[in-house]
Amino acid sequence: MTTPAETALPNAELLGAAETPFQQVWRTFRKDRLAMAGLYVLIALIALALVGKLLTEWWVVFDPTTVRLPDKLRPPFSHASSALAADQVPPLGVYPFGTDELGRNVFARVLQGSFVSLSVGIVAVSISLVIGVTIGGVAGFYGKRKLGPFGIDSLLMRFTDIVLCFPTFFLILTVVALLPPSIYNIMAVIGMTSWMGTARFVRAEFLSLRERDFVLAAQALGLSEGRIIFRHLVPNAMAPVLVSASIDVAYAILTESGLSFLGFGVRPPFATWGNILADGRNYIFDAPWLFAIPGCAILMVVLAFNLVGEGLRDAMNPRLRKRAS
Amino acid sequence: MPSPLLSIRDLRVDFDTDAGTVPAVRGVDLEVEAGQTVALVGESGSGKSVTALSVMRLMSGRVSGGRIDFRGKDLASLSEPEMRRVRGGQIGMIFQEPMTSLNPVFKVGRQIEEVLALHQQLGPAAARAQALELLERVGIPSPEARLDQYPHELSGGMKQRVMIAIAIACRPALLIADEPTTALDVTIQAQIMVLLRTLQRELGMAVLLITHDLGVVAHFAERVNVMYAGKIVEHGSVRDIFKRPAHPYTRALLGALPDPSVRAQRLEAIPGRVPSPAQLPAGCAFCARCKHAFEPCPDRLPPLFEVEAGHRAACWLHDAAPRGSC
Questions:
Q1: Which of A128, A209, A272, A317 is such that its CA lies 20 to 30 A from the CA of B86?
Q2: Which residues of chain B make contact with A241, given a CB cutoff of 8 A?
Q3: B228: helix, coil or strand?
Q4: B216 burial type by CB count under 10 A (0-12 exposed, 13-18 middle, 19+ buried)
């Protein structure tokens, strides 16, 4: 079956060095210094959040709820006083981020809060991705079909527009005020009010993907529509979705911090960046580290997610990719 | 005579547009016997692809009449899950654009394995082995390495071979090839057609070849259907059509082919253009471009007249009933 024209082609082994799409994106992404810095910060923060979770849960001296009244409002890097009981002394006898008005170790509290913030961000965005991809995908793929007098596409997208009109933060405030305060409720509520952008992106991608030949080819092979949508089209529509998702994580973290700051978030003895900040607000002039440290933490995470998102957007844009290489 | 593998009777397909209903296929009769190669020839817009997609029930238009039987069963009566088993399982299809017919984000091997897993319930290891064998079968060198490549790493000819491998993966009884070589280089075209013929003989499948390339038809088809403006205008064996074309449109098509033995030859273009399906004349759709048009042509639709055994043409010139001079 092999003809001379084909044997003249380079061998597949030589061609084997070609890149996978992931490698192409990664190669471009790596050249973006800011995005890489953001990525390193994120990796460090995720590691810190996981370690912090373990430490604050299991190591008594790291307990963020330990009250040490003799040591209240100590500045960062001050040493613990000798008046403390043995199980109250922080590791190495130092408060790296100082203490708050009850003498609680701010470092331990920020560690505990980093896990809350990152997990809220990631879980909320996962929820919003599932909703957004489903609604956008169905609207884009089945758009022309009618459901009663209206097209499925118009029904779903007008619904999206309506949800988009809600003042999201106040909606969340109301819902959280009515529901029992729990971190899971916050994740769910943030997720359910932030899927609209994703739905619009996915719909737009699907409108163009639907007309591509490989969709017809997949149908001609007897694949079911659900399989075509979720196994064949969704991976093709992932690029803009990933970009917006990484920026959405930053928004979700900001929203959670805002809620906690206002006292609607996680219940107080449990520390989050938002409620550390809220507590520190009363001591702005006496103990500036109390608001500066969680504030900087929020700033860093949001900035890192945004930088990574921008880097991904550039790396996944084929036109920019060519220019960069 | 046993019933043919695929039989299309008086198929009519309409498209509903803002400007009204546009008939794309206006009563097509077509038969494909098991193991046979049948060509469907016509210009762009004549309704060839719509006819093919109707067989797969994958067409965006509306079937307004007629009946399509596959293995004696009316395809319109099948439920959607039953129809999915027919697609890819019993009828395979390859398309004009191999460049865009493969999903760009998946490796080639995975796309072949998916069909095998779906229709033959093969496990991952068995599907991979089968995919490897299929790539070998369609003449792809170093198939092992190709399995793990993405579509963009393959040339157009390679991709069309992969498409063929996917289409024949479940040994369909019928392969619909919708302009399989149009987008390929001339040298690759011949390779692909030879491959299709080899596979057809090995697997004993029927091929419905849709093309506007008469050279391809002459070499590969057994029966030919010439389509014009949504109707079959001539039907016969390859020999009938090429040696004794009966319809003026077929003659004009053949006249437009270059003859390599004549130097500096002027090609005969067909004057005029295909009428828009929205504004078809009451009679023969070709009459405005026909040299032989006479009195009944613009007003009355010619049925298919038997020119000789197994060779029919829809042209009043062949009306057996004496109707004066023509």
A1: A209
A2: none
A3: strand
A4: buried
Alpha carbon separation from B227 to B115, B143, B250, B273 (Å, rounded): 32, 39, 9, 15
ipTM over 0.85: no
More confident residue, A11 or A139: A139
The one-letter amino acid code at A140 reads: G
Tokens 């909606």 map to which residue? Answer: A171
Mean of all residue pLDDT scores within chain A: 82
DSSP B281-301: -SS-TTGGG-TT--TTTTTS-
CB contact under 8 A, B142 and A216: no
Give the distance from residue B294's alpha carbon to the nearest chain A alpha carbon, in angstroms: 43
Q: Given the structure tokens 């169905």, which residue do they identify?
A: A138
A13 falls in which pLDDT band (50, 70, 90)? very low
- Whose tokens are 């990525």? That residue is A39
A224 class by beta-carbon count within 10 Å (0-12 exposed, 13-18 middle, 19+ buried): middle
Residues in chain A within 8 Å Cβ distance of B174: none
Q: In sequence order, what are the residues at sequence separation of 6 or more whose Cβ sits closer than 8 angstroms to the Cβ of residue A108?
A: A52, A55, A56, A62, A63, A64, A90, A271
Q: Chain B contacts of A146, Cβ < 8 Å? A: none
Nearest chain B residue to A15 by CA distance is: B153
Q: Please identify which residue in the block is written with the tokens 């005029």.
A: B272
Q: Identify the CA nearest to A202 among candidates A242, A250, A152.
A: A242
Residues of chain A neighbouring B188 (CB-CB closer than 8 A): 5
DSSP 3-state of A167? coil
Q: Tell me how many degrees the CA angle B202-B205-B208 measures, rounded to the nearest 5.
A: 130
Contact between A2 and B146 using a beta-carbon 8 Å cutoff: no
Instruction: Tell me the per-residue pLDDT of A82-118, one tens digit each, with 9 for 90 and over.
Output: 767 666 777 777 777 878 777 788 888 888 888 888 8
Amino acid at B55: V
pLDDT of residue A10: 45
Per the CB < 8 Å rule, is A217 touching B102? yes
Cα separation, A150 vs A119, whole angstroms: 39
Tokens of A184: 């899971």
Radius of gyration of chain B (CA): 21
Residue A86 has a pLDDT of: 67
> Has residue A7 got a pLDDT over 60?
no
Chain A, window 242-301: residues with a beta carbon less than 8 angstroms from a chain B beta carbon = none
What gap in Å lies between CA A263 and CA B198, rounded to an integer?
75
DSSP B279: S
Low-confidence ranges of chain B (pLDDT < 70): 1-2, 262-266, 320-326
Sign of the four-CA dihedral A310, A313, A316, A322 = negative
Predicted confidence (pLDDT) per residue in B259-287, tens digit: 777 666 667 777 777 777 777 878 888 88
Percent of all residues in chain A with a pLDDT value above 70, rounded to a whole number: 89
Q: What is the pTM of this model?
A: 0.78
Please state, in angstroms and rounded to a whole number, the distance separating the CA atoms of residues A235 and A13.
27
Residue B13's H or E segment, with its range, is strand B6-17
Listed residue (B211, B214, B209, B182) closest to B196, CA to CA? B209
Size (chain B), residues: 326
- Report the candidate in B48, B60, B45 with the shortest Cα–Cα distance to residue B15: B60
List the structure tokens of B27. 């009563």
pLDDT at A199: 92
Other C-beta atoms within 10 Å of A26: how many? 12
pLDDT band at A6 (very low <50, low <70, confident <90, very high): very low
Residues A22, A242: contact at Cβ < 8 Å?
no
Of residues B181, B118, B125, the one with CA closest to residue A218: B118
